[in-house]
Design a protein that fits this description.
Length: about 260
């Protein structure tokens, strides 16, 4: 059982012989870690916590720590994590509370990306992906194979159905249907040239005016993109920055915001 000499491991912790505890980890009382699980470095674990086999915990994650629920008063609640999970940097997983069944649970084969937060009494199934900075409120259920997009926030007590896909930066306040693609409405617009920034960086007033005209044709006229580009080419003259803008548009494979 390789335990780095800088790791602090409570005597009551149970660690499989084939598990690996890297430098500067803190493994608290009543923590059980299964075979071949790797705890890289600077991870804090508090029990009661049961971790299965073949998991990887990346630096600066905290697992099984006390919840932020103000109704929590130190009751002996727990956290349970299954097998083959990948818990990336700065993930926070809080243990359960008396009001939620006393258990936060994560199944098998899940990927929790950087800065994911899993609140108290959450139940996550198998084969899910929680993308960067997704926030999961207390008492949430996430069923098997669901994907939660980056930056999304899931309100407490919501359910995410099997095989659901939640688009990035969505705010989820009701249950998400299984097998669905669900996303917040997005309305992102271009409002014109970055006049202040361009002035600060020494662009001439003629260049800024040409860019202003180009953006106005792209975003405020009733022309389609091809028509707008043609009009820009005929009306703005040989301004290098406008040429760069048009080259950027021509090379776009995903379309552009306008």
């Amino acid at each position: 059982m390789p335990i780095h000499p800088t790791a602090l491991v409570d005597p009551s912790a149970s660690i499989a012989d084939s598990a690996e505890i890297g430098p500067y980890n803190i493994i608290g009382a009543d923590v059980r870690i299964g075979a071949r699980t790797l705890v890289k470095s600077h991870v804090v674990m508090e029990g009661p916590l049961e971790i299965g086999e073949d998991n990887v915990f990346f630096p600066y994650s905290t697992v099984g720590v006390a919840p932020q629920d103000l109704k929590y008063h130190g009751e002996r609640s727990a956290t349970r994590i299954g097998n083959r999970n990948r818990i990336r940097e700065f993930v926070t997983i809080h243990r359960g509370t008396e009001g939620g069944g006393m258990l936060t649970s994560i199944g098998d084969d899940n990927l929790l990306m950087v800065q994911v937060h899993v609140a108290h009494d959450v139940a996550i199934g198998d084969h899910t992906v929680l993308s960067h900075a997704a926030t999961v409120g207390g008492h949430v259920t996430i069923q098997d194979w669901a994907v939660v997009g980056a930056g999304s926030a899931i309100h407490q007590f919501c359910r995410i159905g099997r095989h659901a896909m939640i688009g990035g930066y969505s705010v989820i306040t009701q249950d998400v249907l299984p097998f669905s693609t669900t996303s917040a409405k997005r309305e992102v617009k271009v409002y014109g040239e970055n006049k202040t920034g361009l002035e600060r960086r020494g662009f001439s007033s003629e260049t800024i005016e040409a860019l202003h005209k180009a953006f106005r044709l792209l975003s405020r006229s009733k022309l389609n993109t091809s028509q707008a580009v043609e009009k820009i080419q005929t009306e703005t003259g040989a301004v290098p920055e406008v040429g760069e803008l048009l080259e950027f548009i021509a090379a776009s494979s995903r379309g552009f915001i306008k």
